[in-house]
Automatic annotation (TrEMBL):
<dbReference type="InterPro" id="IPR023874">
    <property type="entry name" value="DNA_rSAM_put"/>
</dbReference>
<keyword id="KW-0949">S-adenosyl-L-methionine</keyword>
<dbReference type="GO" id="GO:0046872">
    <property type="term" value="F:metal ion binding"/>
</dbReference>
<keyword id="KW-0408">Iron</keyword>
<dbReference type="InterPro" id="IPR007197">
    <property type="entry name" value="rSAM"/>
</dbReference>
<keyword id="KW-0411">Iron-sulfur</keyword>
<dbReference type="InterPro" id="IPR013785">
    <property type="entry name" value="Aldolase_TIM"/>
</dbReference>
<dbReference type="InterPro" id="IPR058240">
    <property type="entry name" value="rSAM_sf"/>
</dbReference>
<dbReference type="GO" id="GO:0003824">
    <property type="term" value="F:catalytic activity"/>
</dbReference>
<keyword id="KW-0479">Metal-binding</keyword>
<dbReference type="InterPro" id="IPR051675">
    <property type="entry name" value="Endo/Exo/Phosphatase_dom_1"/>
</dbReference>
<dbReference type="GO" id="GO:0051536">
    <property type="term" value="F:iron-sulfur cluster binding"/>
</dbReference>
<dbReference type="InterPro" id="IPR010994">
    <property type="entry name" value="RuvA_2-like"/>
</dbReference>
<protein>
    <submittedName>
        <fullName>Putative DNA modification/repair radical SAM protein</fullName>
    </submittedName>
</protein>
Length: 416
């Protein structure tokens, strides 16, 4: 491999990391250097830049790979060993220096570090732990660190990673075991889930210890997350949300990220030629939101999907799709219905429902009151009853879908 300078390595390894969607930094503990000690803060201060990759993903963290060389051959991955890409590798010290210099320039809020596997899983994980440990212990770095754990790494190394990182993530990659076996034959769903189970236990144990002893060490205070690739195998949206729900329940994940498969240069023949519509990824995030904050079960989301294909509609959101299928659950009386029923009304968000519940303790609500809490009263009207509104014919219309579906319009490229 020709000698590359840090700039060249950065170009290669930041580009190689863009396929990983799981870089959000929500939910960490507050750490700051405002007392004049240490470097960095997990708070987003004024002037911290947010950069976006060409595909629109937020990269406000320094998001890089330690190396894009890999001994595994996962078909969907541009860094697989049979891929014909230019390879590069940072040393642990180089990543530490880069992180600190980017942070001091206010370019980033922290570090998101992943890696291909070099030598062995344990060796690679050791190098990643070395980066995090050096940042924390040698430089008193108090910014955010997200480490992607390496498949099959020794649990003790993963534990070490959790002692320094804010968040750990382990990618399940594909929603079904069959998909994983076909597209990532060297990975094992059982081992991935075993590592998630160990991480959950460590998070809970250290959380308990922290309650009793202030000096107890923290372990991944921002929890763990995972990522699933969408559209690389035959899994339906129903399969994906069901898997996501199981992962939330079993491993207490903070987030499941969905990453629409993007055809990569020099792609393996077993992959589809086209990427799935980006809207599919968006609909899965909306479903995920419904399950986490709106009391929908995976079965509800599956029921909103097309019964023959198992796919969610792309032209309307899953909440509206569910409401159109289950018209018998509507209209909901805004002045009497319980919170769960109000949360099912398309167009009413959690904040709107909370405001409705608070306001109706004092007076009866009219449609105009609800209109002030929603972006589109036209979307809400067929599904609720207010003091001065009853949707009589509207909610029974056979052609309700085009009435409530968002209108598709071409945006002007140079509009002010
Ligand atoms: S182990 Fe990770 S980096 Fe290596 S080929 Fe598989 S997905 Fe890519």
């Amino acid at each position: 491999m020709a000698q590359l300078d840090v700039q060249q390595k950065l170009a290669i390894l930041a580009d190689a990391a863009k396929y990983d969607a799981s870089c959000a930094s929500s939910g960490s503990v507050k750490r700051t250097s405002r007392d004049g000690k240490g470097v960095g803060s997990t708070d987003q201060g004024m002037g911290i830049c947010h950069a976006y990759a060409p595909d629109g993903r937020c990269i406000s963290l320094l998001k890089i790979l330690l190396t894009n060389s890999c001994i595994f051959d996962c078909h969907y991955c541009i860094n697989r060993k049979s891929s014909n890409v230019r390879r590069a590798r940072f040393t642990a010290a180089e990543v530490v220096r880069l992180t600190l210099s980017f942070y001091r320039r206010n370019y980033i809020e922290g570090l998101f570090l992943s890696s291909g596997i070099i030598g062995s899983s344990n060796y690679t994980m050791e190098q990643m732990v070395k980066v995090a440990r050096s940042l924390r212990e040698d430089h008193d770095f108090r910014g955010y660190i997200h480490l992607k754990t390496i498949p099959d790494a020794d649990p003790e190394l993963v534990h070490q990673a959790g002692l320094h990182a804010d968040r750990l993530s382990i990618n399940v990659e594909l929603p079904t075991v069959a998909g994983l076996t076909r597209l990532a034959p060297e990975k094992s769903a059982a081992r991935i889930e075993g590592a998630m189970g160990d991480t959950k236990t460590a998070i809970l144990d250290t959380g308990d210890a922290k309650k009793r002893f202030k000096s107890a060490p923290r372990f991944a205070p921002a929890g763990q997350s995972t990522q699933m690739i969408v559209g690389a195998d035959a899994a339906t949206d129903g399969d994906i949300v069901t898997k996501a729900s199981t992962l939330y329940d079993r491993f207490g994940l903070r987030r499941v990220y969905y990453s629409a498969f993007s055809p990569i240069p020099d792609a393996s023949a077993v992959l589809p030629l086209q990427r799935p519509p980006l809207m599919r990824e968006h609909r899965l995030y909306q479903s995920d939101w419904l399950m986490r904050f709106y009391d929908y079960t995976p079965a509800d989301v599956v029921a909103a999907a097309d019964a023959t294909t198992g796919m969610l509609p792309l032209d309307i959101d899953p909440k509206l799709a569910w409401a159109l299928k289950f018209r018998g659950s509507f209209p909901v009386d805004v002045n009497r219905a319980p919170r769960e029923a109000l949360l099912r009304v398309p167009g009413l968000g959690v904040k709107a429902v909370t405001a409705i519940l608070a306001a109706r303790r004092w007076r009866r609500l009219h449609l105009a009151d609800v209109a002030r809490l929603t972006v589109s009263v036209a979307k809400v009207r067929p599904f609720l009853i207010a003091e001065d509104w009853r949707p009589v014919a509207l909610s029974d219309r056979a052609d309700l879908r085009p009435v409530v579906a968002p209108k598709i319009q071409q945006l002007e490229l140079f509009a002010a």
